[in-house]
Amino acid sequence: MIHNIIRGRAVPSSAGGHRDLINPATATVHGRATESGPTDVDDAVGAAQEAFASWRLTTPADRSALMLRAADILESHIEELTDLEVTDTGKPRDATRDEEIPASIDVVRFFAGACRVPEGRSTAEYLDGITSGIRREPVGVCGQIAPWNYPFMMAVWKWAPAVAAGNTVVLKPSELTPSSTSRMAELLADVLPPGVLNVVCGGPDVGAAIAAHPGVAMVSLTGSPRAGRAVAHAAADRFARVHLELGGNAPVIVFDDADLDATVEQVAFAAYYNAGQDCTAASRVLAHQTVYDDVVARLAEAARTTATGPLISAAQRDRVVALLATAPPHAKLVAGGGVPDRDGFYLEPTVVAGLRQDDELVQSEIFGPVITVQSFRTDDDALAMANGVEQGLTASVWTRSHSRALPFLRDLDFGAVSVNSHAPMGSELPHGGFGSSGYGKDLGIYGLDDYTRVKHIAHAW
Ligand code: NAD
Protein backbone atom coordinates (compact mmCIF):
# COMPACT_ATOMS: atom_id res chain seq x y z
CA MET A 1 0.00 0.00 0.00
CA ILE A 2 1.30 3.46 -0.92
CA HIS A 3 0.85 5.83 2.02
CA ASN A 4 0.87 9.53 2.66
CA ILE A 5 4.15 10.88 4.03
CA ILE A 6 3.52 13.48 6.71
CA ARG A 7 6.22 14.72 9.11
CA GLY A 8 8.53 12.17 7.49
CA ARG A 9 6.33 9.22 8.47
CA ALA A 10 4.24 6.92 6.30
CA VAL A 11 0.64 7.25 7.40
CA PRO A 12 -2.59 5.83 5.96
CA SER A 13 -5.37 8.25 5.20
CA SER A 14 -7.65 9.06 8.11
CA ALA A 15 -10.63 8.30 5.87
CA GLY A 16 -9.40 4.71 5.52
CA GLY A 17 -10.05 4.56 1.78
CA HIS A 18 -7.79 3.34 -0.98
CA ARG A 19 -7.49 3.28 -4.76
CA ASP A 20 -6.24 0.42 -6.94
CA LEU A 21 -3.16 1.15 -9.03
CA ILE A 22 -3.16 -0.23 -12.57
CA ASN A 23 -0.12 -1.10 -14.65
CA PRO A 24 -0.89 0.45 -18.07
CA ALA A 25 1.38 -2.05 -19.84
CA THR A 26 -0.72 -5.01 -18.68
CA ALA A 27 -4.03 -3.44 -17.63
CA THR A 28 -3.79 -5.29 -14.31
CA VAL A 29 -3.95 -4.06 -10.73
CA HIS A 30 -0.45 -3.97 -9.26
CA GLY A 31 -1.01 -2.24 -5.93
CA ARG A 32 -3.05 0.17 -3.86
CA ALA A 33 -2.65 3.74 -2.69
CA THR A 34 -4.27 5.38 0.27
CA GLU A 35 -7.03 7.83 -0.65
CA SER A 36 -6.90 10.95 1.49
CA GLY A 37 -9.66 13.15 2.79
CA PRO A 38 -9.76 16.78 3.93
CA THR A 39 -8.46 15.83 7.41
CA ASP A 40 -5.27 14.46 5.85
CA VAL A 41 -4.78 17.68 3.91
CA ASP A 42 -5.25 19.64 7.17
CA ASP A 43 -2.70 17.43 8.87
CA ALA A 44 -0.14 17.81 6.06
CA VAL A 45 -0.60 21.58 5.86
CA GLY A 46 -0.24 21.77 9.65
CA ALA A 47 3.00 19.77 9.42
CA ALA A 48 4.31 22.06 6.69
CA GLN A 49 3.37 25.17 8.69
CA GLU A 50 5.19 23.88 11.78
CA ALA A 51 8.27 23.02 9.71
CA PHE A 52 8.23 26.38 7.94
CA ALA A 53 8.83 28.22 11.21
CA SER A 54 12.40 26.90 11.35
CA TRP A 55 13.08 25.88 7.71
CA ARG A 56 12.64 29.45 6.51
CA LEU A 57 15.46 30.51 8.85
CA THR A 58 18.00 27.93 7.64
CA THR A 59 20.94 29.23 5.64
CA PRO A 60 21.19 28.46 1.94
CA ALA A 61 24.37 26.51 2.71
CA ASP A 62 22.51 24.25 5.14
CA ARG A 63 19.60 23.69 2.76
CA SER A 64 22.03 23.04 -0.04
CA ALA A 65 23.96 20.44 1.94
CA LEU A 66 20.76 18.57 2.80
CA MET A 67 19.55 18.66 -0.78
CA LEU A 68 22.86 17.31 -2.07
CA ARG A 69 22.52 14.45 0.39
CA ALA A 70 18.94 14.00 -0.80
CA ALA A 71 20.19 13.68 -4.39
CA ASP A 72 22.72 11.03 -3.33
CA ILE A 73 20.02 9.04 -1.52
CA LEU A 74 17.75 9.11 -4.57
CA GLU A 75 20.65 8.02 -6.75
CA SER A 76 21.40 5.07 -4.50
CA HIS A 77 17.75 3.95 -4.84
CA ILE A 78 17.49 4.40 -8.57
CA GLU A 79 16.54 0.79 -9.32
CA GLU A 80 13.76 0.76 -6.75
CA LEU A 81 12.43 4.15 -7.87
CA THR A 82 12.54 2.96 -11.48
CA ASP A 83 10.52 -0.15 -10.63
CA LEU A 84 7.85 1.94 -8.92
CA GLU A 85 7.71 4.40 -11.81
CA VAL A 86 7.53 1.68 -14.45
CA THR A 87 4.72 -0.26 -12.81
CA ASP A 88 2.65 2.90 -12.28
CA THR A 89 3.15 4.26 -15.81
CA GLY A 90 4.05 1.34 -18.11
CA LYS A 91 7.07 3.35 -19.30
CA PRO A 92 10.01 1.52 -20.89
CA ARG A 93 12.43 0.69 -18.07
CA ASP A 94 15.67 1.79 -19.75
CA ALA A 95 14.55 5.32 -20.57
CA THR A 96 13.13 5.70 -17.06
CA ARG A 97 16.26 4.52 -15.27
CA ASP A 98 18.86 6.01 -17.61
CA GLU A 99 17.24 9.31 -18.59
CA GLU A 100 14.21 10.48 -16.63
CA ILE A 101 15.28 9.68 -13.07
CA PRO A 102 18.92 10.84 -13.47
CA ALA A 103 17.73 14.07 -15.12
CA SER A 104 15.39 14.60 -12.16
CA ILE A 105 18.16 14.01 -9.64
CA ASP A 106 20.22 16.60 -11.48
CA VAL A 107 17.40 19.07 -10.84
CA VAL A 108 17.78 18.50 -7.08
CA ARG A 109 21.52 19.21 -7.39
CA PHE A 110 20.91 22.28 -9.54
CA PHE A 111 18.58 23.88 -6.99
CA ALA A 112 20.94 22.89 -4.16
CA GLY A 113 23.52 25.08 -5.89
CA ALA A 114 21.21 27.78 -7.20
CA CYS A 115 19.86 28.70 -3.77
CA ARG A 116 23.41 29.67 -2.70
CA VAL A 117 23.80 32.32 -5.37
CA PRO A 118 22.87 35.71 -3.89
CA GLU A 119 20.85 37.75 -6.34
CA GLY A 120 19.32 41.17 -5.97
CA ARG A 121 19.46 44.68 -7.31
CA SER A 122 21.69 47.19 -5.54
CA THR A 123 21.17 48.26 -2.00
CA ALA A 124 21.49 52.08 -2.02
CA GLU A 125 19.98 55.40 -0.95
CA TYR A 126 17.13 56.01 -3.39
CA LEU A 127 15.50 58.45 -0.96
CA ASP A 128 17.44 61.02 1.04
CA GLY A 129 18.58 59.60 4.36
CA ILE A 130 17.19 56.10 3.77
CA THR A 131 19.06 52.98 2.72
CA SER A 132 16.87 50.53 0.78
CA GLY A 133 17.52 46.92 -0.06
CA ILE A 134 15.71 43.85 -1.29
CA ARG A 135 15.11 40.55 0.46
CA ARG A 136 14.08 37.43 -1.43
CA GLU A 137 12.05 35.37 1.01
CA PRO A 138 10.26 32.03 0.85
CA VAL A 139 6.52 32.31 0.19
CA GLY A 140 5.39 29.83 2.88
CA VAL A 141 3.59 26.51 2.54
CA CYS A 142 3.43 25.49 -1.12
CA GLY A 143 0.59 23.21 -2.24
CA GLN A 144 1.81 21.32 -5.29
CA ILE A 145 -0.26 19.12 -7.61
CA ALA A 146 1.52 16.87 -10.09
CA PRO A 147 0.45 14.96 -13.23
CA TRP A 148 0.91 11.34 -14.29
CA ASN A 149 3.05 11.68 -17.42
CA TYR A 150 6.44 12.03 -15.65
CA PRO A 151 5.48 11.38 -12.01
CA PHE A 152 8.94 11.34 -10.43
CA MET A 153 10.31 14.16 -12.56
CA MET A 154 7.31 16.44 -12.03
CA ALA A 155 7.40 15.82 -8.28
CA VAL A 156 11.06 16.88 -8.22
CA TRP A 157 10.42 19.91 -10.45
CA LYS A 158 7.89 20.98 -7.81
CA TRP A 159 9.48 20.30 -4.44
CA ALA A 160 13.15 20.98 -5.24
CA PRO A 161 12.95 24.73 -6.07
CA ALA A 162 10.36 25.29 -3.33
CA VAL A 163 12.40 23.60 -0.60
CA ALA A 164 15.68 25.15 -1.83
CA ALA A 165 14.09 28.59 -1.51
CA GLY A 166 13.09 27.91 2.12
CA ASN A 167 9.46 26.92 1.64
CA THR A 168 7.78 23.79 2.92
CA VAL A 169 5.62 21.59 0.74
CA VAL A 170 2.40 19.59 0.57
CA LEU A 171 2.69 17.64 -2.67
CA LYS A 172 -0.08 15.60 -4.26
CA PRO A 173 0.98 13.16 -6.97
CA SER A 174 -1.54 12.08 -9.58
CA GLU A 175 -3.94 9.48 -8.22
CA LEU A 176 -2.79 7.21 -11.08
CA THR A 177 0.95 7.37 -10.28
CA PRO A 178 1.71 8.09 -6.60
CA SER A 179 4.28 5.38 -5.88
CA SER A 180 7.65 6.95 -6.75
CA THR A 181 6.66 10.27 -5.16
CA SER A 182 5.55 8.71 -1.88
CA ARG A 183 8.72 6.59 -1.73
CA MET A 184 10.91 9.61 -2.54
CA ALA A 185 9.47 11.56 0.40
CA GLU A 186 9.89 8.54 2.65
CA LEU A 187 13.55 8.19 1.64
CA LEU A 188 14.19 11.89 2.10
CA ALA A 189 12.82 11.78 5.65
CA ASP A 190 16.37 10.74 6.56
CA VAL A 191 17.71 14.14 5.52
CA LEU A 192 14.94 16.74 5.37
CA PRO A 193 13.49 17.85 8.72
CA PRO A 194 10.00 16.46 9.45
CA GLY A 195 7.25 18.40 7.71
CA VAL A 196 9.43 20.05 5.04
CA LEU A 197 8.23 17.66 2.32
CA ASN A 198 4.79 16.09 2.83
CA VAL A 199 3.01 13.89 0.31
CA VAL A 200 -0.75 13.41 0.26
CA CYS A 201 -2.23 10.81 -2.08
CA GLY A 202 -5.61 11.16 -3.76
CA GLY A 203 -7.50 12.55 -6.71
CA PRO A 204 -8.99 15.87 -7.82
CA ASP A 205 -10.90 16.31 -4.54
CA VAL A 206 -7.65 16.22 -2.60
CA GLY A 207 -6.06 18.63 -5.08
CA ALA A 208 -9.04 20.95 -4.67
CA ALA A 209 -8.73 20.77 -0.87
CA ILE A 210 -5.05 21.74 -1.12
CA ALA A 211 -5.79 24.63 -3.49
CA ALA A 212 -8.53 25.97 -1.19
CA HIS A 213 -6.64 25.51 2.08
CA PRO A 214 -6.14 28.79 3.97
CA GLY A 215 -2.74 27.59 5.22
CA VAL A 216 -1.38 27.20 1.68
CA ALA A 217 0.36 30.37 0.47
CA MET A 218 1.12 29.22 -3.07
CA VAL A 219 -0.48 26.63 -5.34
CA SER A 220 1.41 25.04 -8.19
CA LEU A 221 -0.18 22.61 -10.65
CA THR A 222 0.96 20.76 -13.75
CA GLY A 223 -1.96 19.22 -15.61
CA SER A 224 -4.95 20.12 -17.74
CA PRO A 225 -6.29 23.66 -18.31
CA ARG A 226 -9.50 22.48 -16.63
CA ALA A 227 -7.66 21.63 -13.41
CA GLY A 228 -5.54 24.78 -13.69
CA ARG A 229 -8.61 26.97 -13.96
CA ALA A 230 -10.20 25.29 -10.92
CA VAL A 231 -7.06 25.76 -8.85
CA ALA A 232 -6.65 29.40 -9.89
CA HIS A 233 -10.29 30.14 -8.95
CA ALA A 234 -9.83 28.53 -5.53
CA ALA A 235 -6.58 30.39 -4.88
CA ALA A 236 -8.07 33.72 -6.00
CA ASP A 237 -10.45 33.74 -3.04
CA ARG A 238 -7.56 34.36 -0.66
CA PHE A 239 -5.07 35.83 -3.20
CA ALA A 240 -2.72 32.86 -2.90
CA ARG A 241 0.06 32.79 -5.46
CA VAL A 242 -0.56 30.48 -8.45
CA HIS A 243 1.94 28.70 -10.71
CA LEU A 244 0.52 26.66 -13.63
CA GLU A 245 1.94 24.42 -16.35
CA LEU A 246 -1.05 23.33 -18.41
CA GLY A 247 0.32 21.53 -21.42
CA GLY A 248 1.05 22.57 -24.97
CA ASN A 249 0.34 21.93 -28.62
CA ALA A 250 3.76 22.45 -30.15
CA PRO A 251 4.13 23.61 -33.75
CA VAL A 252 7.09 22.24 -35.71
CA ILE A 253 7.76 24.47 -38.73
CA VAL A 254 9.67 22.65 -41.47
CA PHE A 255 11.01 24.95 -44.20
CA ASP A 256 11.97 23.84 -47.71
CA ASP A 257 15.70 24.16 -46.89
CA ALA A 258 15.58 21.97 -43.75
CA ASP A 259 17.78 18.91 -43.39
CA LEU A 260 14.88 16.47 -43.67
CA ASP A 261 16.78 13.42 -42.42
CA ALA A 262 17.69 15.11 -39.14
CA THR A 263 14.35 16.90 -38.87
CA VAL A 264 12.14 13.85 -39.25
CA GLU A 265 14.29 11.72 -36.98
CA GLN A 266 14.20 14.27 -34.17
CA VAL A 267 10.57 15.24 -34.64
CA ALA A 268 9.39 11.62 -34.58
CA PHE A 269 11.40 11.06 -31.40
CA ALA A 270 9.97 14.18 -29.77
CA ALA A 271 6.43 13.28 -30.87
CA TYR A 272 6.37 9.64 -29.79
CA TYR A 273 8.55 9.67 -26.65
CA ASN A 274 6.43 8.67 -23.66
CA ALA A 275 3.68 7.72 -26.14
CA GLY A 276 3.24 11.42 -26.89
CA GLN A 277 2.03 12.13 -23.35
CA ASP A 278 4.28 15.11 -23.09
CA CYS A 279 3.36 18.77 -22.87
CA THR A 280 6.23 19.56 -25.28
CA ALA A 281 5.43 16.74 -27.74
CA ALA A 282 6.25 17.66 -31.36
CA SER A 283 2.66 17.06 -32.35
CA ARG A 284 1.79 19.69 -34.94
CA VAL A 285 4.01 19.64 -38.01
CA LEU A 286 3.70 22.55 -40.47
CA ALA A 287 5.59 21.71 -43.65
CA HIS A 288 6.38 24.04 -46.56
CA GLN A 289 4.31 23.01 -49.57
CA THR A 290 7.37 22.03 -51.63
CA VAL A 291 8.54 19.47 -49.04
CA TYR A 292 5.11 18.56 -47.65
CA ASP A 293 4.71 15.22 -49.49
CA ASP A 294 8.26 14.20 -48.60
CA VAL A 295 7.77 15.11 -44.93
CA VAL A 296 4.48 13.20 -44.73
CA ALA A 297 6.02 10.10 -46.31
CA ARG A 298 9.05 10.21 -44.01
CA LEU A 299 6.95 10.75 -40.87
CA ALA A 300 4.68 7.85 -41.87
CA GLU A 301 7.73 5.62 -42.24
CA ALA A 302 9.05 6.77 -38.85
CA ALA A 303 5.66 6.03 -37.27
CA ARG A 304 5.65 2.50 -38.69
CA THR A 305 9.12 1.77 -37.32
CA THR A 306 8.73 3.34 -33.85
CA ALA A 307 7.75 1.36 -30.75
CA THR A 308 6.04 3.28 -27.95
CA GLY A 309 4.90 2.37 -24.47
CA PRO A 310 1.23 2.37 -23.46
CA LEU A 311 -0.89 5.37 -22.63
CA ILE A 312 -1.53 5.94 -18.97
CA SER A 313 -5.10 4.60 -18.83
CA ALA A 314 -7.96 3.22 -20.86
CA ALA A 315 -9.65 6.61 -20.42
CA GLN A 316 -6.68 8.49 -21.86
CA ARG A 317 -6.45 6.12 -24.83
CA ASP A 318 -10.21 6.45 -25.43
CA ARG A 319 -9.79 10.22 -25.32
CA VAL A 320 -7.11 10.13 -28.02
CA VAL A 321 -9.08 7.64 -30.16
CA ALA A 322 -12.13 9.90 -29.88
CA LEU A 323 -10.03 12.87 -31.00
CA LEU A 324 -8.79 10.88 -34.02
CA ALA A 325 -12.42 10.16 -34.88
CA THR A 326 -13.00 13.91 -35.29
CA ALA A 327 -10.69 13.90 -38.37
CA PRO A 328 -12.71 15.53 -41.19
CA PRO A 329 -12.99 14.11 -44.75
CA HIS A 330 -10.13 16.32 -46.04
CA ALA A 331 -7.73 14.69 -43.52
CA LYS A 332 -5.78 11.57 -44.39
CA LEU A 333 -4.64 8.90 -41.96
CA VAL A 334 -1.23 7.97 -43.35
CA ALA A 335 0.08 5.78 -40.51
CA GLY A 336 -1.21 4.06 -37.38
CA GLY A 337 -4.51 4.99 -35.78
CA GLY A 338 -5.22 1.45 -34.58
CA VAL A 339 -5.42 -0.11 -31.14
CA PRO A 340 -3.03 -3.09 -31.14
CA ASP A 341 -4.47 -6.46 -30.18
CA ARG A 342 -2.59 -6.89 -26.92
CA ASP A 343 -3.02 -6.25 -23.21
CA GLY A 344 -2.36 -2.74 -21.96
CA PHE A 345 -3.43 0.68 -23.15
CA TYR A 346 -1.44 0.88 -26.40
CA LEU A 347 -2.14 2.93 -29.50
CA GLU A 348 -0.16 2.77 -32.74
CA PRO A 349 2.11 5.72 -33.53
CA THR A 350 -0.06 7.76 -35.85
CA VAL A 351 0.27 10.42 -38.56
CA VAL A 352 -2.73 12.39 -39.82
CA ALA A 353 -2.03 14.66 -42.81
CA GLY A 354 -4.01 17.23 -44.78
CA LEU A 355 -5.41 18.97 -41.73
CA ARG A 356 -6.64 22.56 -41.66
CA GLN A 357 -6.19 25.13 -38.94
CA ASP A 358 -9.72 24.95 -37.50
CA ASP A 359 -9.77 21.16 -37.20
CA GLU A 360 -10.15 19.88 -33.67
CA LEU A 361 -7.08 17.67 -34.06
CA VAL A 362 -5.04 20.81 -34.70
CA GLN A 363 -6.59 22.94 -31.99
CA SER A 364 -6.57 20.35 -29.15
CA GLU A 365 -3.64 19.05 -27.18
CA ILE A 366 -3.77 15.38 -28.22
CA PHE A 367 -1.45 13.97 -25.51
CA GLY A 368 -0.99 10.70 -27.35
CA PRO A 369 1.29 9.24 -30.08
CA VAL A 370 -0.16 11.35 -32.88
CA ILE A 371 1.45 13.79 -35.33
CA THR A 372 -0.74 16.08 -37.41
CA VAL A 373 0.63 17.60 -40.63
CA GLN A 374 -0.44 20.79 -42.38
CA SER A 375 0.98 22.50 -45.45
CA PHE A 376 1.98 26.19 -45.68
CA ARG A 377 3.06 28.47 -48.53
CA THR A 378 4.67 31.63 -47.07
CA ASP A 379 6.60 32.40 -43.88
CA ASP A 380 3.72 34.62 -42.76
CA ASP A 381 1.29 31.71 -43.23
CA ALA A 382 3.55 29.45 -41.16
CA LEU A 383 3.73 31.98 -38.34
CA ALA A 384 -0.03 32.54 -38.31
CA MET A 385 -0.73 28.80 -38.25
CA ALA A 386 1.86 28.14 -35.55
CA ASN A 387 0.46 30.90 -33.33
CA GLY A 388 -3.16 30.09 -34.19
CA VAL A 389 -3.92 27.91 -31.17
CA GLU A 390 -4.69 28.70 -27.52
CA GLN A 391 -1.61 26.96 -26.10
CA GLY A 392 1.85 28.53 -26.00
CA LEU A 393 4.44 26.23 -24.45
CA THR A 394 6.99 25.07 -27.04
CA ALA A 395 7.72 25.58 -30.74
CA SER A 396 10.49 24.60 -33.12
CA VAL A 397 11.71 25.82 -36.50
CA TRP A 398 13.73 23.70 -38.95
CA THR A 399 15.83 25.52 -41.55
CA ARG A 400 19.45 26.06 -42.61
CA SER A 401 18.89 29.82 -42.82
CA HIS A 402 19.60 31.97 -39.74
CA SER A 403 17.92 34.99 -41.27
CA ARG A 404 14.78 32.98 -41.89
CA ALA A 405 14.74 31.58 -38.35
CA LEU A 406 15.41 34.81 -36.47
CA PRO A 407 12.00 36.48 -36.90
CA PHE A 408 10.39 33.25 -35.67
CA LEU A 409 12.46 33.31 -32.47
CA ARG A 410 10.95 36.73 -31.87
CA ASP A 411 7.39 36.24 -33.13
CA LEU A 412 6.41 32.74 -32.04
CA ASP A 413 4.13 33.15 -29.05
CA PHE A 414 5.55 30.27 -27.00
CA GLY A 415 7.57 30.00 -23.77
CA ALA A 416 10.37 28.09 -25.52
CA VAL A 417 11.36 28.36 -29.19
CA SER A 418 14.23 26.40 -30.70
CA VAL A 419 15.84 26.13 -34.13
CA ASN A 420 16.88 22.71 -35.49
CA SER A 421 16.05 20.96 -32.23
CA HIS A 422 12.76 20.39 -30.44
CA ALA A 423 12.23 21.32 -26.79
CA PRO A 424 15.79 20.95 -25.51
CA MET A 425 15.61 20.83 -21.70
CA GLY A 426 18.07 21.13 -18.86
CA SER A 427 17.98 21.96 -15.18
CA GLU A 428 19.30 25.50 -15.90
CA LEU A 429 16.70 26.30 -18.58
CA PRO A 430 13.31 27.82 -17.72
CA HIS A 431 10.28 25.78 -18.76
CA GLY A 432 6.79 27.25 -18.86
CA GLY A 433 4.29 28.69 -21.29
CA PHE A 434 2.01 31.49 -22.36
CA GLY A 435 -1.71 31.58 -23.09
CA SER A 436 -3.68 28.54 -21.95
CA SER A 437 -0.38 26.77 -21.23
CA GLY A 438 -0.39 28.72 -17.97
CA TYR A 439 2.13 30.96 -16.25
CA GLY A 440 5.16 30.58 -14.03
CA LYS A 441 8.42 28.82 -14.80
CA ASP A 442 9.79 25.48 -13.71
CA LEU A 443 13.58 24.94 -13.66
CA GLY A 444 16.41 27.44 -13.86
CA ILE A 445 16.91 30.50 -11.70
CA TYR A 446 13.47 31.64 -12.88
CA GLY A 447 11.98 28.53 -11.27
CA LEU A 448 13.68 29.39 -7.99
CA ASP A 449 12.50 33.02 -8.21
CA ASP A 450 8.90 31.86 -8.61
CA TYR A 451 9.08 30.29 -5.16
CA THR A 452 10.27 33.50 -3.50
CA ARG A 453 8.65 36.80 -2.66
CA VAL A 454 10.35 40.19 -2.90
CA LYS A 455 10.46 42.44 0.12
CA HIS A 456 11.75 46.02 0.16
CA ILE A 457 13.56 46.73 3.41
CA ALA A 458 14.63 50.25 4.33
CA HIS A 459 16.53 51.84 7.18
CA ALA A 460 16.62 55.56 7.93
CA TRP A 461 19.97 56.99 8.85
P1 NAD B 1 -5.65 16.54 -14.69
O1 NAD B 1 -5.34 17.94 -14.94
O2 NAD B 1 -7.05 16.19 -14.33
O3 NAD B 1 -4.72 15.93 -13.54
C1 NAD B 1 -3.47 16.53 -13.17
C2 NAD B 1 -3.41 16.64 -11.66
O4 NAD B 1 -4.38 17.60 -11.20
C3 NAD B 1 -3.72 15.35 -10.91
O5 NAD B 1 -2.91 15.27 -9.76
C4 NAD B 1 -5.18 15.53 -10.52
O6 NAD B 1 -5.57 14.77 -9.39
C5 NAD B 1 -5.24 17.01 -10.22
N1 NAD B 1 -6.54 17.64 -10.37
C6 NAD B 1 -7.48 17.38 -11.31
N2 NAD B 1 -8.53 18.20 -11.16
C7 NAD B 1 -8.24 19.02 -10.10
C8 NAD B 1 -8.94 20.08 -9.46
N3 NAD B 1 -10.15 20.46 -9.87
N4 NAD B 1 -8.35 20.70 -8.42
C9 NAD B 1 -7.11 20.32 -8.00
N5 NAD B 1 -6.43 19.31 -8.56
C10 NAD B 1 -6.97 18.66 -9.61
O7 NAD B 1 -5.18 15.73 -15.97
P2 NAD B 1 -5.91 14.46 -16.60
O8 NAD B 1 -7.39 14.59 -16.60
O9 NAD B 1 -5.33 13.28 -15.95
O10 NAD B 1 -5.42 14.59 -18.12
C11 NAD B 1 -6.25 15.29 -19.03
C12 NAD B 1 -5.43 16.10 -19.98
O11 NAD B 1 -4.62 17.03 -19.25
C13 NAD B 1 -4.41 15.34 -20.80
O12 NAD B 1 -5.00 14.70 -21.88
C14 NAD B 1 -3.46 16.41 -21.18
O13 NAD B 1 -3.96 17.13 -22.28
C15 NAD B 1 -3.44 17.29 -19.96
N6 NAD B 1 -2.26 17.00 -19.11
C16 NAD B 1 -1.21 17.83 -19.20
C17 NAD B 1 -0.08 17.56 -18.45
C18 NAD B 1 1.12 18.45 -18.56
O14 NAD B 1 2.25 17.98 -18.47
N7 NAD B 1 0.93 19.75 -18.66
C19 NAD B 1 -0.02 16.46 -17.61
C20 NAD B 1 -1.14 15.64 -17.50
C21 NAD B 1 -2.26 15.93 -18.27
Protein model, in words:
This protein has 461 residues and is α/β, with parallel strands linked by helices. The chain folds into two domains: 4-246 and 437-460, Aldehyde Dehydrogenase, Chain A, domain 1; 251-426, Aldehyde Dehydrogenase, Chain A, domain 2. The chain contains 15 helices and 21 strands. The chain has helices at 38-55, 60-76, 78-89, 93-114, 151-164, 179-188, 204-212, 225-236, 260-272, 292-304, 314-324, 360-363, 379-387, 402-411, 444-450; strands at 4-6, 9-11, 17-23, 28-35, 124-127, 130-138, 141-145, 168-172, 197-199, 218-222, 241-245, 251-254, 284-288, 332-335, 350-353, 370-376, 391-392, 394-398, 416-419, 434-435, 452-460. The strands form six sheets. Strands 14-15-16-13-12-18-19 form a seven-stranded mixed beta sheet, with helices on both faces. Strands 9-8-7-10-11 form a five-stranded parallel beta sheet, sandwiched between helices. Helix 12 links the parallel strand 15 (350-353) and strand 16 (370-376). The longest helix has 22 residues, at 93-114. The radius of gyration is 23 Å and the shape is globular. The model has no long low-confidence stretch (mean pLDDT 97). Residues 145-149, 172, 174-175, 203-204, 207-208, 211, 221-224, 227, 230-231, 245-247, 279, 319, 365, 367 line the site of nicotinamide-adenine-dinucleotide. Pfam families: Aldedh. Keywords: Oxidoreductase. Residues 17-457 form the Aldehyde dehydrogenase domain.
